[in-house]
Structure formats: C-alpha cells, structure tokens
Amino acid sequence: MLNYIIRRVVYALPVLIxxxxxxxxxxxxxxxxxxxxxxxxxxxxxxxxxxxKWKAERGYNKxxxxxxxxEKLEKLTSTIFFEKSVAMFVFxxxxxxxxxxxxHEIRSRMLPSLAIGLPVFVLGLxxxxxxxxxxxxxxxxxxxxxxxxxxxxxxxxxxxFYIIVGQFLVSKLWxxxxxSGYGNGADAAKFLLLPVIVGVIGNVGSSARWYRTVFLxxxxxxxxxxxxxxxxxxxxxxxxxxxxxxxxxxxxxxxVVVPLLFLGSLLIESFFGIPGLGSYTIDAINSxxxxxxxxxxxxxxxxxIVGLILTDISYTLVDPRVRLN
Length: 325
What we know:
Number of domains: 2
Order of helices and strands: HHHHHHHHHHHHHHHHH
Structural class: mainly alpha
Helix content: over 70%
Distance between the termini: 6 Å
C-alpha cells in the first residue's frame, strides 16, 4: 500500500507540471504581460514606463519560457514560467496581480466553499442513490418509467434555470431566505440553504439516472440470481447485495466531486454572492489575473489526484478482492 501511494505521488509530479505548462500556454496565447498591465492599471492611455514598472514589480519583465540572454541553467530558471510555477509545489502561491496574498485568500475562502460543497455532496449522494434504488426496485413499472422521464427532463434544464427560479420563488416571492450574501456562524445557514438545495436539485436527473444504470447492471449478475434462488426477498437482495457490490462505480463517480468540495461551484457562488473559491476564480478570470487562475488550476489538479488515490485505497475497503501493490 505504501509503495503504491509513493508511486502515485511521483507520477503526479509530471502531471502537475504539464497542467501548469498548458495553463500557462493557454493564458498567454490570449494575453501578453503588456495587456495584463494595461488592464490592472486601469488607465486608457497608460505610458510605456508605467507598464514596465508594473511588469518589473510582479516579475513579468522576463521571457516566458526561455531566456536566451542568460547563462547555463538560468536560461530556463530566469523565466516567468519557472519563477511562477515552481514555488507552487511548496504551496507558495505568491500574490495576485492586485497585490493580495493568494494563500491567505484561499484559506479564508475555503470554508464558505466547503459549507456549500460538503452538504451538496453528502445530501446529494443520499438522494440520488435512494431515487435510483427505488426506480430499480419498481423496475418495468410506471414508477420506473416516469422516474426515467423526469430524470431526462431534469437533465435537459440548465443549473442556471434552477438558480433563477429558486431566487425568484423562495427569496423574492416567498421571502424565506435571503436572495444572496453570506454570514458568519449560525447566520450562514439561512444564506446556504437555497444554494445547497439548488446544488442537489441541479444534479438529480443525471446522477439518479446514472446510479440506476449501475444498479441495473448489477441486477443481471450471477450472484443476484443465486441470492434469489436461495429465497431471499427482492428488498434484501437490492439493498444489501446489489448496493454493496455497486460501491466501486459509486466511489469512482464520487471522486470527480472532491475538487469541488474545496473549490466550490462557480455558478452557485457567483449568483448567490458566496465569498468562496468558486467566485474567487470567476473574478480572477474576468480580471485576467493570471496568478490567481494558475493557483486555482494547480490546486484543483492536485485535489483531483488526491481524490483518485483515496478512491483506489477505498476500493480495498469495499471489495476485499482488490489489492494495491
């Protein structure tokens, strides 16, 4: 097990380097350091001297990937890519283009993102699996048929629709919860209730239908027919045997959500005014703040890799046949 984890961590390093290189290339295809300086300075007719000063203060006055004027290793190390990327591997994210410490912003904004992401993940998993099990239990009946129809209909509706309708009905029309904003302590609950509900409802269609497919696949396997031949009731076969053996695909699907637990939902946080990492990322993209975008992409990639490792380890807990060497 320990050897497996070490190998996965070592394999993750080139992946993170590649992600950083790709993000770097995509960002600077659209923008140059001069464009970034003009946007951050906010002056229509900014002088070349002001641009050069802004670039020098933030380390953008060097070549992007290769410094032909430097000597030996400095040809690679004295570049924007090296100086902006290497430090992130020790979680030194530096400062944003507006001068704020990125690590401090991440620490302060992670809790609001978790306050939304964790309830949506846990509550959603319970709701999706329960609905899928009910459709499978009543398979080939009207309950199953109309359940699939509703799932397909919900899949066809954008999350943005749920956000707008939820804000209009629950907040503006009924005045049950605030339309947007965030509070500290117990006051946060009234601001988070609607975003959590929207987050769960927005994924009901696709998730419940996917879990239904997983369970139906398990229902056709040999061990299910054996359990039925022994006289076990259908309820026990489904909720004990099928559910347990379907845990591996369930865990595989759940790993995709791991980065969102920390990084938050871009749409939900932006529309509900939640000061989490999702809205932080959207603001950085709008302002073309490369330092923040690079840090958030790196953090998301790292969390996804950690999620994959934890998922592989959890396989050994739900299926004793799986062994990690």
